[in-house]
Model the fold of this input.
Amino acid sequence: MRALTGKPTADGTIHPPPPVTPSPPAPPRRPGLPKVWLAAAGAALLAVGGALFWISGGMAGCGAGSGTVYIQYPASVSRQTAEALRGALNAAGFNAPGTQKVDETPSQMQIRYFDAAQQPQVKTLGCVLAKQGYKSVEVQPNLGGKSSPLEVWFAGQP
Done:
């Protein structure tokens, strides 16, 4: 006979604990993994400074944003799209003061950061972007130079 473990009820009966729902498996950690969001079944993987973060679930899982985020977008992205992202970032706790239309943009959406201390903000920002449907975002560290707020760059047309 198998012993049951769990919490006894008022009459002394012991019931088994409720079943545990397993978390989705994390993707394997591989050397040389690009610093890119990878979409997988409603979740995403973010590599920041050599650490991997598995993002899934609702917006509550993102944490509160903080700090200023500048948003750059090309002519191929509508101002309304950039402004919608700005609204989402402000709602998440970031200060996104405006959007800027630029002539040159990367081939893939990017988060740029300038100080290793910004990595927790990068994780939160990446999570908010993923929740807004941007599942492929490159994280571009620009360390050792100027100190600057975070930046989000929309990709231009190839």
